[in-house]
Amino acid sequence: MELNLKIALPGGRVERIKADFPYEGSPLGFRVLVEGKTGLVVGLSDDGQVKEVVFPDKVPLTSEKNLSALKDTAMLYGLIPWLLLWELLPSEWNWKKERFLMVPLSSFVGLDQRTGRFLDWVAKNKRVKEETAKKRFGLQFVRLLLEKGFLRVVEDWSAVNVEVELFSLNLPFDVALSKLKKTKNYAERVRLLSYLRERLYATREELKEEGFSSQDLQFLVSKGIVKVEKELMQNFAFSPKSQLRQSSISLIKSIQKPVLVVGSLSRLLEHLVLLVESALSENKSLPIFCFQNSTLLYLMRELKPLFGDRVVSLSSFDSPRQFVKNWFLAQEEGRVILSSRL
Fold first, then answer.
1. Is residue 164 part of a domain?
2. Residue 240 within a domain
3. What is the pLDDT along the chain (342 residues), one digit of tens a residue?
4. Are residues 85 and 103 in the same domain?
5. Which domain holds residue 222?
6. 338: which strand partners?
7. 14 plus 79 within the same structural domain
8. Whether 201 and 144 share a structural domain
9. Total structural domains within the chain
């Protein structure tokens, strides 16, 4: 069905586009890929310019009710509504068409050392942005390899790669304590080290939420007691030794229909499995919110073998494309949805 659509783009601008809408019902709330950018259908128009568009999702990202509430909120605070919309949406939804380098060669024999090393780097990383390569190795060098046919450019849709800082102990715990003697804020720094020992790793955001001082964290990093590594969330490989350590106190408390599960997961996992089995037997979905990412990883490792593809996660550790896929899977009935801070 051909419709004239109002499409909100990142930055708050609205385009009027005439396009075929491939699904039944209202197009409001659907994402649209158009001219290398992602937009969101926010209304209908009297006219529109014909453009080639793609609707990447089978169901809308949001509803007409939510769009109306957002417009009211923006008006109340004097904000541009569609600029506010894209500021609120996670970056995983904002796909962009970018240029990536590919290596058509299968062997680098006979090439000089610099060229061979560069092509090997591109081949191993698979999706290297053209601009990234030019900044790192030089515009003329990359352009020459493209002209010689050693490289080729392909265009593909890409979501924002979010880089996360991961903090962990760099020394055995007792050695780390010995290096802290006679320093300021000793008790707080010991508490921070104890937290990292239990969690194995933590993001800066998690440490801040736990009340740890950024100055204490920086001090421990500068002394080599704590190490920091930067990883792309979708590429992060978790250690199988990342066991959740919690208090041995256990509590199961019913609050009307929801159930609050607090305490040692190793003791409560059996009860949690019964809750999941009960929900799935009635083809109902069961959302499980985890306050710590390590909790989510623990549950995913325990529940996935038992319930298979019916277990989905909504976490910042999912790749952007997997996050989008899981978002829509979570709308279906008979799913176990594990979520944590995004």
1. no
2. no
3. 889 999 999 989 999 999 999 998 999 999 999 998 999 999 999 999 999 899 988 889 888 998 998 999 888 888 899 998 998 887 778 888 889 998 887 777 778 888 888 888 888 887 788 988 998 889 999 999 999 888 999 888 876 655 667 888 999 888 999 988 878 888 899 999 988 887 777 878 778 878 899 999 999 999 999 999 876 544 333 332 233 333 333 333 333 444 555 545 555 677 788 888 888 888 889 888 876 777 788 788 888 888 888 999 988 777 777 888 888 888 888 999 998 755
4. no
5. 171-231
6. 288, 313
7. yes
8. no
9. 4
Is 165 contained in some domain? no
Same domain, 102 and 73: no
Could you say which of 40, 74, 89 is where a domain stops? Answer: 89
288 part of a folded domain? yes
On whether both 181 and 149 belong to a single domain, the answer is: no
